[in-house]
Amino acid sequence: MAGGSPKNQQLENQRKRVTWILGVSGLCIVFYILGAWQGSTAPTNPSEVYNRIGCQPGMSTNEDQSSSSSTTFSLLPVELDFESHHRVEINRTSEAQKFPPCDIKYSEYTPCQDPVRGRKFDRNMLKYRERHCPKKEELLLCLIPAPPKYKNPFKWPQSRDYVWYDNIPHKELSIEKAVQNWIQVEGDRFRFPGGGTMFPRGADAYIDDINKLIPLTDGSIRTAIDTGCGVASWGAYLLKRNIVAMSFAPRDTHEAQVQFALERGVPAMIGIMASQRIPYPARAFDMAHCSRCLIPWHKYDGMYLIEVDRVLRPGGYWILSGPPIRWKKYWRGWERTQEDLKEEQDAIENVAKRLCWKKVIEKDDLSIWQKPINHIQCIKSRNVYKTPHICKSDNSDAAWYRDMETCITPLPEVSSEEEVAGGAVEKWPERAFAVPPRISSGSIPGITAEKFQEDNQVWKERVSHYKHIVSPLTQGRYRNVMDMNANLGGFAAALAKYPLWVMNVVPAKSEKDTLGIIYERGFIGTYQDWCEAFSTYPRTYDLIHAGNVFSIYQDRCDITYILLEMDRILRPEGTVVFRDTVEILVKIKSITDGMRWKSQIMDHESGPFNPEKILVAVKTYWTAEPQKSQEQQ
């Protein structure tokens, strides 16, 4: 029969239709992959890298810098535009808002340590200098301005010794502490000779004196805390010995001391020993230090020394210089009686003994104690010393708005007197990548040694990718770095060989509290609720990393205020790297476009098929308008 049977003809048509569909589908897939490959190709030369992120190569820190008006910003060859496809509602203020600059009086605004607000609170135990954050109706919807003649800070290590006067125009400390050599004004800049109240020969020589008494250079001491740090010269000079110090001081009559520290490129926070725990986990620091820090260690049943004991690692050291140490020599200069100073030292010695600390040595201006490596003997000694007792608390790491206690934080149990409670840590630098004891002991559910190693590999790859999109990441452009959601500290570890430091932040009330792990790796950090302001001055960080932060906080508070807080603490021409879903990044970009930021959404380092994307943003350079004199008005 001509043409074949109807049944055969029908089968032939079906075959042709299937072949056509497969052919078209194959072409679509080929062209999609080709287009995705072209759009995600890494830049191949330095000039393209600089153009992508909007940083001018070779930006200097000289006198002409104040003339830079804004950061240039060129988009990627293929811009990722998700705006029309993603319209998920998350907690934020009105659409397409342009944020005006705040008044110049807010140039050094610290929302949760505002001196004016603080005066309303209890002065007992200096509670009024603790964190007191503004209510929602008090929050500012404006951009904190830099001073009119602001310049980018000196690069490290020059920044350790020099700060531009126009960036922090306060001469008070140079006058008040002139004899003690804290800080000097030299023309258009401040110079930091490295002096301190108790180290007139300089912090370097002072640290050498400590090194003669305890080992500072063999890697066994890596993390330190400096209570009442001044301008953080002790922490600044420890860095060349591979020791990183968390320096803190209150916002008080010593104007801008923490601001000076951060401007120098030295880790620091606004903080105080008052009624609440300092925001660090238990067993965090290898060494604690107080040089005439004026903390009443012997008062309130020894509560402040008990808090130091909580954050000291087993076997950690506490160093005290200044009143009352060596009172027989200094009592006249301190304008106190010999009896008063002797009584204070006896009281401190008594508290230290009850904490089971061993006095290592008292020599010249220094006195050093050591915490025991476990609590076997300490528990036995409670038969002699009834107070302070061992705490019954089930969470010694909890430190976010948590009151201090007058009981000894218990150490993890051990099987012998030679065993280090909680596990010993490796010496630095091996410590950075060794499996931390909190992980190897299984104390944090769901985090294993295998996951730790996987996380290190992930961050190694991510930082390698960041070098192409955030330049010059490793060449000294960025000194003060913050990781807003640090997890295991992998970002800081991947950057450890570069001339920068990372403030590792673990969000308060996280499902897994990993800050103790970060300290066991030899890095520093703090707890923080990002619905509130961070305890720092404006313009104190060069680079901020925000990985999945907004996924965590999108239902907790208005993300606009989190972004405004990031703008407050970011330096002009500083960079932010966001990692999140496309929906959230589109929302973030729509807000930061009204904040004088230039930004670009990019593919994940693994390619376009990963639902997580990267948003790189650069804060443009701008300052407050110079205030006109009355004659000009």
UniProtKB/TrEMBL annotation:
Gene3D superfamilies assigned: Vaccinia Virus protein VP39
EC class name: transferase
Cellular compartments annotated: Endoplasmic reticulum membrane; Membrane
A single GO cellular-component term on record: endoplasmic reticulum membrane
Assigned EC number: 2.1.1.-
Family: Belongs to the methyltransferase superfamily.
GO molecular function, one term: methyltransferase activity
Primary site of residence: endoplasmic reticulum
Organism superkingdom: Eukaryota
Pfam families, alphabetized: Methyltransf_29 (PF03141)
Topology in the lipid bilayer: Single-pass type II membrane protein
Annotated InterPro entries: Put_SAM_MeTrfase, SAM-dependent_MTases_sf
Bilayer-spanning residue ranges: 20-37
Protein name: Methyltransferase
Native species: Tripterygium wilfordii
Keyword tags: Glycoprotein, Membrane, Methyltransferase, Signal-anchor, Transferase, Transmembrane, Transmembrane helix
One biological process term in Gene Ontology: methylation
